[in-house]
């Protein structure tokens, strides 16, 4: 890993791989949470499996946490190095024509998304760790749906989640295709396909999470 992150190309490659891993996780996370819309039992059963399966809890969960930390730290590192490599801006530069606003401000959207991740962990992950490992409470199969539903009773929390998911969508809009480009997946034949998939991914994934938040608010 040290060798992979010792050069600019290596850091970009490593960041792209962590991004692809997180893209896959978002699909899985959304799939489980959508079950809460279709029935309490389905969501409770899936959440209990995810919450008490040793492989998920003690292998996959730590890997996910490391991937999130690595991805955002590497993003900040690359941004700082890019700024140092170009201390003086080009005299004739028209950024609005040369690149999109989001591609120029990934560090800003990334910081907002990171702040939202901390909020999300405070709402759910810390509560879960406290329930299982600090308080040591027994398994209660029916509690998962109720906990999720109660979180979205507050309209301001729903609004905050909606805004955060919109910014996540903007971040994904550029990050999806950029990740594949960084690992060399760039060709006239399949680059348009990757860009199209990235566009739909950046719309459907945030829209799905927004739908879940609004659903639980309006069904209080």
Explain what this protein looks like in three dimensions:
Helix 1 (8-38) packs across helix 2 (40-52) and helix 8 packs antiparallel against helix 9 (191-218). The protein has a single domain, classed as Fumarate reductase/succinate dehydrogenase, transmembrane subunit (3 helical TM bundles of succinate and fumarate reductases). With 220 residues, the protein is mainly alpha-helical. It starts with 7 loop residues before the first helix and ends with a helix. The protein is built from nine helices and no strands.
How many domains, as an integer? 1
Contiguous runs where pLDDT drops below 50 for at least 5 residues: none
Helical content (DSSP H or I, runs of 4+): over 70%
Structural class by helix and strand composition: mainly alpha
Sketch the topology as an H/E string, one letter per element. HHHHHHHHH
Helix count, per DSSP? 9
- Tell me the fraction of residues in β-strands, as a range: under 5%
In CATH, the homologous superfamily goes by the name Fumarate reductase/succinate dehydrogenase, transmembrane subunit
Can you tell me the CATH architecture? Up-down Bundle
Count of beta strands = 0
CATH class: Mainly Alpha
Gyration radius (Cα, Å) is 19 Å
User: Please, what is the average pLDDT?
Assistant: 87
User: What is the CATH T-level topology?
Assistant: 3 helical TM bundles of succinate and fumarate reductases
Instruction: Note the overall shape.
Output: globular
Q: What's the N-to-C terminus distance? A: 48 Å
Q: Sheet with the most strands?
A: none
């Amino acid at each position: 890993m040290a060798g992979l992150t010792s050069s600019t190309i290596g850091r970009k490659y490593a960041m792209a791989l962590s991004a692809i891993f997180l893209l896959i996780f978002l699909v899985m996370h959304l799939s489980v949470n959508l079950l809460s819309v279709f029935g309490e039992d389905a969501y409770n059963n899936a959440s209990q499996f995810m919450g008490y399966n040793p492989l998920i809890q003690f292998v996959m969960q730590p890997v996910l946490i490391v991937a999130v930390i690595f991805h955002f730290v590497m993003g900040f590192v690359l941004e700082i190095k890019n700024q140092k490599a170009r201390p003086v801006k080009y005299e004739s530069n028209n950024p609005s024509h040369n690149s999109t606003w989001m591609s120029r401000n990934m560090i800003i959207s990334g910081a907002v998304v990171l702040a939202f991740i901390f909020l999300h962990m405070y709402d759910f992950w810390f509560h879960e760790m406290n329930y299982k490992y600090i308080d040591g409470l027994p398994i209660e199969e029916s509690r998962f749906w109720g906990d999720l539903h109660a979180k979205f009773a507050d309209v301001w929390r729903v609004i905050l989640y909606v805004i955060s998911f919109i910014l996540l969508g903007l971040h994904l809009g550029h990050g999806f295709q950029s990740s594949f480009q960084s690992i060399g997946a760039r060709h006239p034949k399949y680059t348009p396909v990757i860009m199209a998939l990235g566009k739909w991914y950046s719309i459907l994934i945030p829209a799905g999470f927004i739908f879940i938040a609004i659903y639980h608010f309006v069904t209080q």
